[in-house]
Write a structure and sequence with these properties.
The structure is a single chain. This protein has 169 residues and is mostly helical. The chain contains seven helices and two strands. It has one domain: Up-down Bundle (Four Helix Bundle (Hemerythrin (Met), subunit A)). It has a two-stranded antiparallel sheet with strand order 1-2. Helix 3 runs antiparallel to helix 6 (123-149).
Length: 169
């Protein structure tokens, strides 16, 4: 199980790098425009992805700042957002690398945003949610890129696996 989550952590970083490379080519107007996505713009969607990862990493580790809301804009500047995304991806990789199969078979306890009641959740399910959530919202950003430019990079897991050899054995 640990190797699967390590693969997803690596894939997450790879996909985010590809996405950010493509987004960097957008005009500021296209980047910030409300295109009708759940978080409105590419800018809002990328900020949400970072917010959600920080929320979950805080739940997993007890470390880091808890964002004020799921739609918080942590960085108005794209390059600052990109640098924070890269740092968070490395934090996720480090966290997952430090887990044992016994850890993954365990539970986490946390309070939801704005709630005081403690929740108990299997760690493997929470990790699965984090990586699935990333894929979901990266897909939204990918769709926006396609709408804006007519093209977006492949973010397929199988492409990552073929490029790196990770997860093919």
């Amino acid at each position: 199980m640990r190797e699967t989550f390590q693969m997803f952590a690596g894939y997450n970083t790879w996909a985010n790098e590809r996405l950010y490379d493509a987004v960097a080519q957008l005009s500021d107007e296209d980047y910030r425009a409300d295109h009708g996505a759940f978080f409105k713009s590419v800018h809002g969607t990328l900020n949400h992805l970072l917010v959600a990862d920080r929320v979950w990493m805080h739940r997993f580790t007890g470390e880091g700042n808890m964002p004020p809301s799921l739609d918080a804009i942590l960085h108005d500047d794209f390059e600052a957002l990109r640098a924070s995304r890269q740092a968070e991806d490395q934090r996720i990789i480090g966290y997952v690398a430090g887990l044992t199969d016994a850890d993954i078979a365990g539970e986490i306890r946390f309070s939801g945003m704005g709630q005081t009641a403690e929740m108990v959740h299997p760690l493997r399910s929470a990790l699965s949610h984090v990586f699935n959530h990333q894929t979901h919202h990266r897909g939204q950003a990918h769709c926006l890129l396609t709408k804006i430019t007519g093209d977006a990079p492949s973010l397929d897991l199988i492409r990552y696996q073929r490029q790196t050899g990770i997860g093919l054995s």
